[in-house]
Amino acid sequence: MNGDSGRCCVFCGFSADSKEHVFSKRLCKRAGAVKYPVIAGLSVEGQENVTRKEHQIEAVQVRHVCATCNNTWMNDLEAWVELRLGFLIEPQWPNLALPMIEALKPERNKLAQWLMKTAVMFSHASLQGEHPVKFSQAVTRKIKDGILPENCWIDLAFSKSVLSAVGGTLTRHFYVKNGSQPIQSQVIKSGDGFKFIVQFNHLLLRIAQAPSANVTYQSQQGEIPVRLYPTPNPRTPDNLAYDDIMKFERSVILETWKDCPGNIT
Ligand SMILES: [Zn+2]
């Protein structure tokens, strides 16, 4: 996060001459978070716990982008998010949330591009040294054209509790169920997958990638997220409500069939 010189924009390769907020000011303002600390969650490799450090939003900036990217497509994406998700990120969850969520489905590629871009920024914002999740240049250079790595998906849910107006977590840690074996926690090899979750007040969004696995969900009271990408749920589930961001984070279970790779979806 502190400026070594000669850095290149992670998205286009030009000189990184601009500062970018991981969570844009306009979205933080809409969420009512401008003067409050933001939680920048960091999953520790091999551990289930997430250590959380609070930083002022102003501090959660990275110098890994160029002014052209920052002022063009990245800015356009933030404006799009405010337009389409503005009411969903405000402190008060809107009465008309369901039609707003429904309206995201046809524009899911834009949402995916924004989440992927934000995940990359988040991976550079760790104040505790190198973030365990790294995105290769082959991945980051395609984001400006809206091209995502394969096997990504997006879930949306509601958080009953709001610890901080704006926050996020990025990890390579997954729960995996292999055949009839009990669920185990596993850290996926770098480059093979990730989970990135952002919370704006009650809104929870996850973009994740997990090759060679079937994605299922662990539920406590029947809650299940809305899948928005790549193929949206035709019907929004009745219960989208998770206790908090961590319950949502841990709800994903990857099912794999080691003995029978042909079954992998
Ligand atoms: Zn650039």
Description:
By secondary structure, this protein is an alpha+beta fold. It has one domain. Helices cover 25% and strands 29% of the residues. It has 6 helices and 14 strands. Strands 2, 3, 5, 6, 9, 10, 12 and 13 form an 8-stranded mixed beta sheet that branches. A hairpin with a 6-residue loop joins β2 and β3 (50-56). α2 packs antiparallel against α3. The radius of gyration is 18 Å and the shape is globular. The model is unreliable at 42-51 and 259-265 (pLDDT under 50). The site of zinc ion (ZN) has 8 residues, from α2. The site of zinc ion has 8 residues, from α2.
Summarize the topology:
Elements: E1 18-21, H1 25-30, E2 37-43, E3 50-56, E4 61-65, H2 67-89, H3 97-104, H4 108-123, H5 137-143, E5 152-159, E6 166-171, E7 173-178, E8 184-187, E9 194-200, E10 203-209, E11 214-217, E12 226-229, E13 241-242, H6 245-249, E14 252-256
Parallel strand pairs: 2-6, 5-13, 7-14
Antiparallel strand pairs: 1-4, 2-3, 5-10, 5-12, 6-9, 7-8, 9-10, 11-14
Helix pairs in contact: 2-3, 2-4
Zinc ion is lined by residues 9, 11-12, 14, 65-66, 68-69.
Short description, anyone?
The chain is an alpha+beta fold.
Q: What are the segments in which pLDDT stays under 50 over at least 5 consecutive residues?
A: 42-51, 259-265
- Distinct compounds present: zinc ion
**Helix-and-strand structural type:** alpha+beta
Biggest sheet character: 8 strands, mixed
User: Over all CA atoms, what is the radius of gyration?
Assistant: 18 Å
What is the beta-strand fraction?
A: 25-35%
Describe the global form: globular
